[in-house]
Amino acid sequence: MSAAVPTLELERRLFGESSLIFGLDEVGRGALAGPVTVGACVIDSATADAGIPDGLRDSKLISEKKRPELAERAAAWVRGTALGWATPGEVDDVGILGALGLAATRALAHLRQQGYDAADGIVLLDGNHDYVSRVAATSLGRIDVRSVIKGDRDCASISAASIAAKVARDELMTELHPDFSPYAWNRNKGYGSAAHRAAIAEFGLTPHHRHSWVISPPASLF
């Protein structure tokens, strides 16, 4: 098995503990502009028995052109998909981990509305830090969150969440581009490319920037 191809090995083991497995992954954590987005997918044993959609990978390993079609197939494979967002202002107010917790909680709340309660399952979170449990406790109650290093690469449920979040956030940043074209968000999606940083130096910050992330920024012109 190639290390870049996700499997359901972990999820299948965990079906011995719970009938529902939730995969979570974030996009936009390191960006200078735009929201942070958390994708959430839920699978059950029947989903696993159907096999993984062909070509499913961590979103970073899939070309931008191929992502939307794969996201559609991944959404059709899982039992439910949801997105949660936290604004740049929330990143400034509560920090990146707090904002990720808000976004993740919102994604899981949307899945609850679809009939899939994270409190009834196990949540697999990409990375090595649980930013979900503390924030979720006030609105969703106690949930079982398990951090999985390289989960977006290795776990199919997390890979499906990764592609959903990446496609949605990229679409948003592309939609914002015409009104803020000097920043080239259609290409850099809000991350700190040379063109983006040059535009900040020349034109200042917009309401979509994380103002706390830029050292000694010029005065905002928008």
TrEMBL record:
Its cofactor is Mn(2+); Mg(2+). GO terms for molecular function: RNA-DNA hybrid ribonuclease activity. It is found in: Cytoplasm. The keyword Transcription does not apply. Belongs to the RNase HII family. Endonuclease that specifically degrades the RNA of RNA-DNA hybrids. InterPro entries: RNase_HII, RNase_HII/HIII, RNase_HII/HIII_dom, RNaseH-like_sf, RNaseH_sf. Residues 19-222 form the RNase H type-2 domain. It catalyses: Endonucleolytic cleavage to 5'-phosphomonoester. This is Ribonuclease. Manganese or magnesium. Binds 1 divalent metal ion per monomer in the absence of substrate. May bind a second metal ion after substrate binding. Pfam families: RNase_HII (PF01351). A divalent metal cation binds at residues 25-26, 126.
